[in-house]
Amino acid sequence: MSLESLLLYFFAAAALLGGMLMLVARHPMRVAIALIGSMVSLACIYAILGVHVIAVFQVLIYVGAVMVFMVYVIMLLDLRDRSFTSKYGHLLVPGLGFGALLAVVLAYAATRSAGPAARALPNGDPGASFLIQPFSAEFLREYWLHFELTSVLLLAAVVAAVAVIKGGRRNDG
Amino acid sequence: MDRVQFLIAVSVALFVVGLVGVIIRRNALVMLMCMELMLNGVILSLVTFAQQTATVSGAVLVFLIFVVAAAEIAIAIPIVLLLSRQRKTLDVEAYSELKG
Hints:
heterodimer; A: globular; B: elongated
């Protein structure tokens, strides 16, 4: 087994461990730390796969922006309410059962369909088009409209966030 | 099990763990974070397939998912803040007016 696959298995196990810790940790801050660990492990997996653009995005956008925002909110709202003392709702048993069922079905579908399709694909140098420069050139040549539309979406999100906060303040009096 | 199948299995596991977290946890912020974990599982499968087929479109889709996730958090966090300001709790079972 090469070092690359060994690292891949290690980081996959770390990502899964982070996900499991999210289910059992009590304080939201610990959940956030577990999620950050899981996301960084996934970024390492992307880097091992040679998809450098996504690895950079994962760390910059997810860990750097989204999770820092989340951690700030957890710090501001340190509520020791009922969700802190008993962390699971009344859907614990059906939720776990449903999750196990879904895992079996999805794993069955994945192992059944991924095999032949993966073998039929060309086996060139898959990582080459995911280096920053070729990816960016291809992205802005082919998908410039989508890129511009995301800025509209982000603007709409900012306006909506401001509207939500303003509306809530008006209701408070 | 080859590498693609292994990565798809990891992405399935992450998605299921996130979904179970959304269902069983009762803290609104923890549920939001579990949704992010589900998105991460989907992104892993997209990256795996994009890398396997050596096409850029999968990575572009991942970029768009990042943007949508950022927008989702930007909307969801103010809503959670408003809810917690009204009831002083993050317990989702305290917000059950819409239940039949």
